Amino acid sequence: MKQMFRVAFDLLLEAARRKWFLALFGAITLVLVILGFSLQLEVVDGAIAGSKLFGSMLSKEIVSANRVMSGLFTVVAYLAFYGGAFFLALACSDFAPELLAPGRIEHLLSLPVARWQLLFGTFLGVVTLAALGSFYGAGGLTILLGVKTGIWNWNLLLGSAVGWVGFCALYSVMLTTNFFVRSAALSGALGVVTLILGVVASFRESISVAMSEGIGRTLFSWAMLPIPRLGTLATVAANLAGSLPNEPGMVGRLLGGCIIFSVALLSIAAWRFERKDF
Amino acid sequence: MLWLVLAAVLLGVGAWLMRGAEPPDRDPVEPVKLPTRMTRAEREKGEERRTWLPFIAPDAGVIAEPQRPRDPVLAVMPSEVKRGAVVAEFNAILNSELGGKLTDCLFGDGQDSFLQELRDAGMDPTSKIDRVAMIDDSVVVTGDFKNAQWKRFAPSGSDPVSKDYGRQGQIHEITRADGGTDVFATWGGQMFIAGGDEAELKQVLDRLEGSGPVGNPVVDESMAYGEVYGVVSSQPIADMVRKSDPQLASMIEQSAKSMQLHMDVGHDVGMVADVAPSNAATTDELRRSLGAALSLARMQAAAKGEKDQADILDLARVREAEAGGGFRLEAGLPNAFMSKALDECIVQRKQRAERNRSGVALDAGDED
Q1: Which residues of A touch B312 (CB under 8 A)?
Q2: N or C: which end of chain A has fewer CB within 10 A?
Q3: Which of A44, A49, A228 is closest, CB to CB, to B18?
Q4: Contact B169, B187 (CB under 8 A)
Q5: What is the pLDDT of residues A157-191, one digit of tens each?
Q6: CB contact under 8 A, A226 and B317
Q7: Max intra-chain CA distance, chain B
Q8: Contact B132/B87 with Cβ under 8 angstroms?
């Protein structure tokens, strides 16, 4: 187990040296700093009486700060879920190909690390990186608005945690792909395809009803069954962030399903990794 | 191979767990309709209501100014009010979606003796009244009162006196049991005017027939939209909130001149109130204070778990006016909320009626 965490930690060190991730954290910081300086909120007893962005009036309406934050967090959660998943699918696509690169993999296999530990350690490293990015962004925005309005609403962190579980499912597909075809491009593309399939799977029942009865409809229904419901998960994340109600049972099933899917895909990768000669 | 078996089992378990987990259906929230401008139907209705009010014969040698047809209710409006002038489209409200319940809430289920007496006197409020206007201390009711038997409501022994005034007006005087007198006026079998003394009633009739001083009415045709419309001065509003918030009351007195009010009760109840400023700076302060108060009330309601109240407060808005330095206050009561409130009102009314009936029976028993 210790070896697995060491692999994950090594991956984080490697990520820190990459420009992509520096750019990700830099961009999040820049957005927060710009918002911090340009967003002027006039708060009276918990209500936003006036708001200006870059000196222009945003709204003439007096609304409660809580309502504004809920609306803003809902939009941010959706954007972060889809935008973050897309960006990370591309940015993380070459970790696995580099791990399996000739020369490096032989070196890693010569170390006292089990293959499954190498695999799960890589996965853990990448998803930790995604967690750091999303919590940094969500936490930063929460603190910024908390300081400006005096109201501390931590729901965006919950929303981003749900979004992170969705990314785990995406990355499990990306990582597994590399044990069959070592290609960063294919890995990234399949990550995006999984995201799209995840949205389609979310509307599986509505779509299948619209399809004409027959083998096509049955195949579609069965094929979509194991795919994580990423579209629904995005809605759940946005609802959580925006303090809107969610059905707890459904949220649990979705999160559980996503985690189980990720482990299942990693098991396929482990099976392939154990059998592969380098 | 163990890994593959594990993967297959996990995929199966995951699929089973996620089945049917589609995005939750959420009923779209229908916005409460707010009366922000006059609709075509309201404009047409206003045109239909214009009446050629009686022409006052000029003195010899004086050329009479041609008069245009006017809505009788708007014609009685003075150019200034102390407290306010508000018109309610009584018939339209009673015939709206909520009208049935409102009628039961106001008048009971027809067993009410006062309602029955009104009906017997040809003054059924559910079918004979068109509009009700409150102008300071006066009440103006329009409708079909051609066959109304006013005298049935005079105290026994009193001898009501009626005298003609103007072209179609009549002033009625009734002696009360305590020796004092009550006066009210009627006009052309379609208007009932009460409140104030004889001189004030005459002023109202003069305005109606165009024989009094002419000024800009406080409520004109351009304001006649929504089921309730009119102008309320800042004083009664300040008096209303003084007990709970004296600071807000004094701010209202200092900052707001008057408030133009429009309410729509077609389906939900939507209210728009345009506040006219008396001082631009303090009016802006009032706008912010009201917005903050609404927001605070919403948060408190949400914190206490009073969801209905929080949802209603959520519909309330304070907007800065496009021009003029005033602001607009918007509020809405959804149909479901109003329906529930009226149901409670009907139940309470029935319980009151039951109590009254049993009280009367008990009194009768005591007498026996």
Answers
A1: none
A2: N
A3: A228
A4: yes
A5: 999 999 999 999 999 999 999 999 989 999 999 99
A6: no
A7: 119
A8: yes
Q: Is B306 exposed, middle or buried (0-12, 13-18, 19+ CB in 10 A)?
A: middle
Both structure tokens of A103: 């020369």
Cβ count near B363 (within 10 Å): 10
Residue B182: phi and psi, rounded to 5, are: -110, 140
Alpha carbon distances (Å) from B30 to B95, B267, B295, B311: 22, 11, 21, 13
The reported pLDDT for the residue numbered B134 is 92
How does pLDDT run across B52-79, given as a tens digit for each residue?
766 555 565 555 565 678 888 998 899 8
Residue B27: pLDDT over 90: no
CA dihedral over B348, B352, B357, B359, signed as positive or negative: positive
**Can you tell me whether residue B78 is helix, strand or coil?**
coil
CA-based nearest distance A183→chain B, Å: 23
Find the closest chain A residue to B293 by CA distance: A45
Residue B219 structure tokens: 């409520």
Query: What's the rounded mean pLDDT across residues A255-266?
Result: 94
The verdict on a CB contact (< 8 Å) between A246 and B24 is: yes
Shortest Cα distance, chain B CAs vs residue A20, angstroms: 32
SS3 of A155, please? helix
Supply the pTM of this predicted model. Answer: 0.64
Which residues of B have a CB under 8 Å from any CB of A?
1, 3-4, 6-8, 10-15, 17-24, 287-296, 298-299, 302, 314, 317-320
Which DSSP state fits B45?
H
> What is the spatial distance between Cα B165 and Cα A56, in angstroms, rounded to a whole number?
62
Provide the pLDDT for residue B126. 81
B18 and A257: CB-CB below 8 Å? yes
Residues of A in contact with B29 (CB under 8 A): none
Q: How far is CA B6 from CA A136, A170, B9, B15, B34, in A?
A: 35, 19, 5, 14, 60
Closest CA of chain A from B221, distance in Å: 29
Q: What is the Cα–Cα distance from A167 to A183, expressed in whole angstroms?
A: 19
The tokens for B279 are 């001082």
Residue B60 has, within 13 A of its CA and on its CB side, a CA count of 0
User: How high is the ipTM of this complex?
Assistant: 0.79
d(Cα A199, Cα A230) in Å, to the nearest integer? 5
What mean pLDDT comes out for the span B149-170? 80
Please tell me which residue of chain B has the smallest CA distance to A251.
Answer: B21
| Conformation bin of residue B182: beta by default, left when phi > 0, alpha when psi is -120 to 50 | beta
Question: Cβ of A47 and B294 within 8 Å?
Answer: yes
Give me the phi and psi of B315, to 5 degrees please. Answer: -80, -10
Q: What is the DSSP letter of B222?
A: G
Nearest CA in chain A to B23: A232
